[in-house]
Design goal:
Shape: elongated
Distance between the termini: 38 Å
Largest sheet: 9 strands, antiparallel
Number of helices: 33
Structural class: alpha+beta
Number of strands: 31
Length: 1008
């Protein structure tokens, strides 16, 4: 191989140059986004059942639907909610599903099967299988008091932006659909002797789309257009209604007709106190550069802005700016890491060797980016972080190669001979050390689930850069070293030689003491684990406070809007509240990737408050909680900042199961009280509802039959009085507008009026409701909750700063031991506990593959179980630094820290490999084990220390960055590496002197 490299130096140089140019081109053209994209594993089914109670929705819609969904193997769980008039089912596919479209097709088939069991009056059923799509840009259209007017403007703006490159789809939110209301006057109907059925029949006959055909005149076709449709509102008012005596009156004599927003109220949005309509632009992820996409949108808006005056088009959320800011910050961290590493290399190796080693950094980075782009990679913060982590590791191979060649040159060897010998000696050990590092990251690459999908860019980029660095280290670097290195005049003057000899002397003289000291340090480190906080993912570093507003189930949206507006006015009195966006009737656009999304719900609201800095959010959160507790006790809120990692309802979530509703309610209330008393919990809430009053109309069938009425006639009349019935469609607009026939008051119908309404039979006769039915007031639940078909309730809590979910759950466990829950109660932990368990379980599931690969490379290199066992001792030695480092730096142990531990395993194993490789070469030359280990420590101290120094130096910008996501991982690697490096140079050689006596024996050629 070495001879071929020497013969094709020019070809190798051209290939490397072209790959570097490929990397430059890829970096300037590849798509960019802040975070990775996720498979479409989350979905939401919405079923409308107008007027039905929560119990009826659960019994007649939710349970048949859930039963069918449970037969779809790809479904991990379903979370169903039955409310008055609507059923909602959240679906989650299993973590091993990546090709999600076939799974959603099977779910649609299950929905069709379930629909056959639904009552005939169940409305539409819709599946949203793109629930995780987040808008890249949310625009707010304001400048007019009429929401209908703003909706038309938003629709026009949507058409102007739909042809932009990279747009997946555009959604309107906070807009108002329109209806034409035909408000019947009961007294007039009774006086005129007509029924609502007569009006419905007349409107249907009058408003038809009957074509008139065409006639041919002078060879040209002329269309015949009969006026069979309503042309305007006045035509509707003038529609003649026939009376029983054959005369006619216009519809306006029996009903008021007007055009306005649909009823009941739709979700509403406010931008800094102004009612607006939102335009959410969803980008094609994975193929579109978010930064350039944002530039195109701004350019288009600047072009068309004059056409939309006097309306205002403002940016509510603009993700491309966040992408640019995030990637710019990480790019500077990358540059700073490179500069620090280069300075360390120059300091430790001198200018000439340092320059050779440092030259590999830009080559590896550019080639890796080019290959990453060819594989369809997207440049996001996870991929950049993977490159930052790999910076210090990837020059390890180059350091060892250059050191070896320089050593041979110092001994007087010729340049080409030094090159050949260095490559022949180190290609195997360096390949094994690179392979073990790749094996350490294999579980991260192969793990399934949301957390693994989020962080997969780290192992992908690290494994790619390490593979490229190894290939360059055994090809390009030796050629450059042989060409530019010179024998040193005084190699003994090396500053690290004295330290290496001192460490080698310690190993030679005191091996047992070193082993005992290492064992003691490991024990002390493990003893510090109880002082370490646990956290799944940290909060985001965006200065935004999110206030979730929960009104009691059954609350009308008008009351929710009033409460949200009052809270917004109070927050505006705070100087640190720069911007406040309000959403009522839903939770607004999902402007951040892990925000919980709630569809239309009249009892829900959300405020998003922007503060000057991240530090201001803590003060704002405390003030909002205190204000609501003191001034607005009727409000149930959950307030916090944006989070990281997979979406979850709250950091602490306890699901409570029991077959008996009353016992389950008792258990939930007990858990609620216990969790509120746990130190560190805040915003503790449960989803029990007090129920809603209902009016039971008990129809007397015999009496109703005498009047020619049925129960269905009564139900339809009552429904028409409140919600109304769609009589016809007004088709003069681009979208047909429903014409709704109802009472004048609609859903605001007074209770006494409801009880005295007239019911009309087939003959058009008006019969008072009181003549055929009695009225009874009842109390019924406002909502029912099911998970996988089983009823449950949930208790949730947020955490104060500095507290972890594990501390809260430990406190809850202690409280329940003193006061146990009712017998038969089953608890299930959600939130961060579930997410952490799933993520760690996914890693552990894939861990055996990583272990097998690790053992494969180690046995391939050393062919000795004893040596492999000694090398694996470096893993527990790394804990000497990990746990104290996290405790002292104040970093919690979570999924990010676990990634750091995995990265650390690959690094520390590398150090042991190059150490034992020298030992085996010395043993083959006939040295004793003590002398062989002493020489190994002397020869490998500088490369190991330099690798440690460059890795630590490369991670320092991450450790001290303002990001909340990466410092825990950086500190885990830095602290663990610092401790394990010293122990690897002392304890591992000491163990070798006690367990190894000779080189690996050849297989015995025994007689057959």
């Amino acid at each position: 191989m070495t001879r071929r490299l020497l013969n094709f130096q020019r070809l190798l140089g051209m290939v490397v140059t072209m790959l570097c140019l490929l990397g430059i081109a890829a970096y300037s053209t590849m798509p960019r986004q802040e975070d990775p994209s996720f498979p479409y594993r989350a979905g939401l089914i919405s079923v409308n059942y107008p007027g039905a109670s929560a119990d009826a929705v659960e019994r007649l819609v939710l349970r048949p639907l859930t039963d069918e969904l449970r037969q779809v193997e790809e479904v991990d769980f379903s979370q169903g909610t039955a409310r008055t008039g609507v059923a909602l089912v959240r679906l989650r596919l299993k973590d091993n599903i990546y090709d999600t479209d076939p799974a959603w097709d099977r779910i649609r088939q299950a929905m069709e099967r379930a629909q056959q069991d639904f009552p005939g009056d169940v409305g539409s059923m819709v599946l949203d299988d793109r629930l995780i799509d987040n808008p890249a840009i949310v625009l707010a259209i304001g400048g007019a008091p009429s929401v209908s007017e703003l909706s038309d403007v938003a629709e026009r703006l949507k058409q102007n932006l739909s042809d932009l490159a990279g747009v997946s789809r555009i959604e309107l939110e906070g807009d108002a659909d329109e209806q034409i209301t035909l408000a019947l006057d009961d007294a007039a109907l009774y006086r005129l002797g007509i029924s609502p059925a007569r009006i419905l029949e007349t409107l249907a006959q009058r408003n038809q789309t009957t074509p008139g055909g065409f006639v041919v005149v002078d060879g040209r076709r002329l269309s015949v257009l009969p006026n069979t449709e309503f042309a305007d509102i006045e035509a509707i008012r003038a529609t003649p209604i026939e009376l029983p005596d054959g005369s006619q009156v216009p519809l306006a004599a029996a009903a008021d007709v007007w055009r306005g927003p649909v009823e009941p109220r739709q979700p509403e949005t406010w931008f800094d106190g102004e009612r607006v309509v939102l335009l959410s632009l969803i980008m094609e992820e994975g193929t579109t550069d978010a930064i350039r996409f944002g530039e195109r949108v701004r350019e288009r808006i600047a072009q068309i802005q004059p056409d939309f005056e006097p309306y205002e088009i403002r940016e509510m959320f603009f993700q491309p700016d966040k992408v640019s800011e995030r990637l710019d910050n990480l790019a500077w961290s990358l540059v700073l890491s490179v500069l620090i590493i280069v300075a360390v290399v120059f300091t430790g190796m001198g200018i000439r060797m340092g320059l050779l080693v440092a030259s590999i950094l830009p080559m590896v980075a550019l080639i890796s980016v080019g290959l990453y782009d060819l594989g369809g990679g997207v440049l996001h913060q996870i991929a950049v972080i993977g490159m930052v982590i790999s910076l210090g590791i990837l020059i390890d191979n180059a350091i060892v190669i250059v050191e070896n060649i320089q050593g041979h040159l110092d001994e007087g060897m010729r340049r080409m001979d030094a090159l050949r010998k260095a490559v022949s000696e180190l290609a195997g050990p360096l390949g094994a050390s690179t392979g073990t590092t790749l094996a350490a990251f294999a579980p991260m690459l192969l793990a399934k689930g949301g957390a693994a999908d989020f962080t997969r860019g780290v192992p992908v980029m690290i494994m790619l850069t390490l593979s490229v660095s190894y290939l360059l280290a055994i090809s390009v670097v030796p050629l450059l070293a042989a060409r530019f290195l010179k024998p040193r005049r005084n190699a003994e003057a090396d500053r690290l030689i004295g330290l290496a000899r001192f460490l080698g002397g310690l190993v030679y003289r005191h091996p047992r003491r070193l082993i005992a000291a290492g064992t003691l340090l490991v024990a002390i480190s493990l003893a510090m684990t109880p002082f370490m906080a646990q956290q799944f993912f940290p909060d985001a570093d965006r200065p935004r406070v999110v206030v979730e507003i929960f009104m009691p189930e059954g609350t009308d949206q008008v009351r929710t809007a009033e409460a949200a507006a009052n809270l917004e006015r109070a927050i505006r009195t705070r100087a640190e509240a720069l911007e406040i966006h309000r959403f009522v009737g839903f939770t607004g656009p999902t402007f951040y990737y892990n925000l919980q999304r709630a569809p239309q719900a009249p009892n829900r609201g959300r405020l998003v408050v922007t503060t000057p800095t991240l530090e201001h959010t803590t003060e704002m959160i405390h003030w909002i909680r205190a204000h609501v507790n003191e001034q607005m006790p009727e409000l149930d809120i959950s307030v916090g900042v944006l989070g990281q990692g997979p979406p979850r309802i709250a950091p602490v979530e306890v699901r409570v199961y029991h077959a008996d509703d009353q016992v389950r309610t008792q258990a939930v209330e007990q858990l609620f009280v216990a969790l509120r008393q746990v130190e560190g919990t805040v915003d503790v809430r449960h989803d029990l509802d007090i129920g809603v009053p209902s009016i039971a109309i008990n129809v007397d069938d015999a009496t109703a039959a005498r009047y020619g009425l049925t129960r269905a006639d009564v139900a339809q009349s009552l429904y028409g009085q409140s919600f109304g019935v769609v009589a016809e469609r007004y088709r003069q607009e681009k979208d047909p507008i429903p014409m709704v026939l109802r009472s004048q008051e609609g859903t605001s119908l007074p209770l006494e009026r409801l009880l005295s309404v007239n019911i009309y039979n087939d003959r058009g006769e008006a019969i008072p409701l009181s003549a055929v039915a009695s009225v009874e007031t009842t109390w019924e639940p406002a909502a029912r909750y099911l998970r996988n078909g089983t009823r449950l309730n949930t208790v949730t809590a947020n955490l104060l700063t500095g507290y972890s979910f594990s501390q809260a759950l430990d406190g809850l466990k202690n409280a329940l031991e003193e006061n146990p829950l009712p017998e038969g109660t089953r608890l299930e932990m959600g939130g961060d506990a579930e997410g952490s368990g799933d993520a760690n379980g996914a890693l552990l599931t894939a861990a055996p593959i990583g272990v097998l690969l690790l053992l494969f490379f180690l046995l391939l290199q050393f062919n000795s179980f004893r040596r492999v066992g000694i090398i694996l001792l470096t893993v527990p030695l790394a804990t000497v630094g990990i746990f104290p480092g996290l405790v002292l730096s104040g970093s919690p142990f979570g999924f990010q820290s676990l990634l750091g531990v995995i990265a650390l395993v690959g690094i520390v194993v590398n150090n042991a490999i190059v150490l034992l490789d020298v030992m085996d070469r010395e043993l083959e030359l006939g040295e004793s084990i003590h002398e062989a280990m002493r020489k190994a420590v002397v020869q490998r101290t500088r490369p190991i220390l330099l690798t440690t120094a460059t890795t630590v130096a490369g991670l320092l910008p991450l450790a001290f960055s303002s990001s909340t996501l990466w410092p825990p991982m950086a500190w885990a690697i830095i602290s663990g590496l610092l401790a394990s490096t010293v122990l690897t140079l002392l304890v591992i050689p000491a163990v070798c002197t006690q367990l190894i006596r000779a080189r690996v024996a050849e297989p015995e050629n025994a007689p057959a």
